[in-house]
Amino acid sequence: MSKPSKTKELKIITRHVVTIDDVAKDPRKLKLLYLVDALGEISEKALQYLVYWLKTEKQLDLGYEFLVIGNVPSSKELKMDIVALLYVGALETNPRNKKLRVTSVGKELLEKTVTENLKPEFDRVVAAAKELEAKVKSIDAEVELTIKMLRQSMRRRRRRRFI
Fold first, then answer.
1. Is 1.10.1760 the CATH classification of the domain at 20-157?
2. Using CA atoms, how far apart are residues 79 and 33, in angstroms rounded to an integer?
3. For residue 44, which of 72, 20, 6, 24 has the smallest C-alpha distance?
4. Any idea where the domains of the chain sit in the sequence?
5. First-to-last CA distance in the chain?
6. Which helix (H) or strand (E) holds 102?
7. pLDDT band at 19 (very low <50, low <70, confident <90, very high)
8. Are strands 91-93 and 100-102 parallel, antiparallel or unpaired?
């Protein structure tokens, strides 16, 4: 009897290409973009926590399902929306502190799409987020400290190699 041979299969997963028009038609992505714009810069981790706290503490569901493992909320849909906003250029990552911020493309998109009938709902989300801002800042500080420690350890490793 021959053993079954091991084969490596390439899995191809198709993804819908996101355009700026798709983002303009999706109220969930627009709320997320509006939220980041109102808060200035925010890390992805802090944004995950913020959207989770909005859902659980303020009863403002932005349409994301969360899985909580070890008191750490995560949402695949939220991550995919962040990636989509980065892909179309509405968001960018600050290279210094790894925080998300809205680009000029994102600001232009918000000006065009956030109409007077959507604005009160978006402002309600931002007002609730401002109430949670102290908790969010602590998560952001944790992320900044982690990045700072990683950079310092990388510098030390580089120096040791050449001595």
1. no
2. 13
3. 72
4. 20-157
5. 58
6. strand 100-102
7. confident
8. antiparallel
